[in-house]
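Quick question, first post here. What does this chain look like in 3D?
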Amino acid sequence: MRWILFVMFAVGVAHACREPPLFQEAGPLAETTTGSIVGKYVKVFDTDVAAFLGIPFGEPPVGQLRFSLPKPAAPWTGLRAAQTKPPPCPQWSPVPFAWLPTTSPSEDCLQLNVWAPARCSGGRPLPVMVWIHGGAFIMGSTDMDVYDGAVLASYGDVVVVSANYRLGAFGLLNAGTEDAPGNAALYDQLLALQWVRDNIASFGGDPDRVTIFGESAGAWSVSLHLVSPLSKGLFKRALMQSGSMYHPATSDAPEVAKQKTTEFAKLAGCGGQGDEMLKCLRGKDFEELAKLENGLTTRSVVYFLPTYGDSFLPVPPITAYESGQLPADVDVLSGTTKDEGTLFLPAMAPEVFRFDAALPALTRQQAESVTRTLFQMMPKQAVDAVVDYYFNNLNATEDGKEPEYARLVADALGDSFFHCPTVFLAEKVASGPRLYWLTYAAEFIPSAASWLGVPHFSDVPYVFGAPIVDGTRYSPEDGKFSGDLIRMWANFARDGHPLKDDAGSWPAFTHEDPVAMELNPRASQLITHPRFEVCDRLWRHLYTPTPSASSAPLNQEHIEA
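> Answer (accepted):
Ran it through. Tokens below.
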């Protein structure tokens, strides 16, 4: 613990008078490269925000375009209404989750949203923040209420963009053919970033000050764009909440990806190879394929993963990070929540953990059994090392039950997939990355047990301002803390420094000085990263520079992100 910083005094953002773009009584107007659109005004207390919702950036990926790389949206004539959020892309969810989309999915989902503060004519263009949602590459959507960008745009004085991308088989299936090459989801994101470059000035945004930010699988995506040669120059800053692709089980070799596709097709009743197989899969109803993916396993699973070996991702992610491919001219801010692993336990080990029950007391044998199941994608020798590291020092008998065993299972899960990948990627960033450590969250899952702590995803409502506008579920302290985080994120998007006018007060994270900013409503302070030691002593030696084939059989499990 270094010194106390009262962030509430350091993160202020100067607000100037704003005027909605091209004011019209019917709604704000904007000209894009594909046509004219009319949005709508939304109020954030007494402030106007111009919202443009459901703007097409890609052709509907239906019929022959299913599984293909995206094509830019076709131009339209006349004035197009942009006043309704886009539908979710086809998806399934392995866990009941309060924030998930409630509207019906559609394959015609390659649309994005823009929220722009009212701005004065002649004012300087605003920083742009492009959100990539999480959900393990299998679920999530920009129509989720928690991702509404109006409060972030208003309080942060930034232009906010969120874009859908295809999920699961629709976004990551790789048949090894020109029309189904894999990574369609990442190319969807790339196309959205290109749209932002070409159009965001019409909304008052600065195309030279674009920050991409995301949580969980969204953070994984951000970490891939950092090393993709195709994404170079499309953004100036990168913000990763809970994760990076610095993990050997988050991407597939081409041959593994194609094997998965063949197995998936067989389950769908589509035999054969190449065109014959794809024609059959394209003839299936999207709901049937989504349901089939849901049935691949009884546990939370990421079956289809990003594939390396193409133009977007030429080499495995860890190889890219280790070989110095991270750009030196992109500012990086990243971090994790204190209890990253807890949220996944009821989904991945439902016979042991429940959202509506207390943390179970386990014997060491039970804890080892759960841990070996959770990490079955790793070699036995590596899992032995994990079990020994986490459980050998606990002061309990072999037969005695101890709730701390369950806590250590959650720690191992969070360290492996979130804390340590964040730490290891930060060490490779030459531009001086800053790390945060979130230690506060309101209860955000109804009836959830207190043992969840500060779980995965708990930062997202604060970043998008839910506690500011929802006084029923959140306290005034929550609302103030949300405002502090919004201003920090916006300051970073503005000039790369989360704390306004105090760039030196949040030092860069390095291996020699693994400092992080602990964030909570009472007092944020610089600390030594609490998980650095376990990352350095254990997980660093279990991650290899070249990821192993992360995958193949249907019963192999991966953590969701």
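DSSP finds 16 helices and 17 strands in the chain.
Residues 1-20, 545-561 have pLDDT under 50 and may be disordered.
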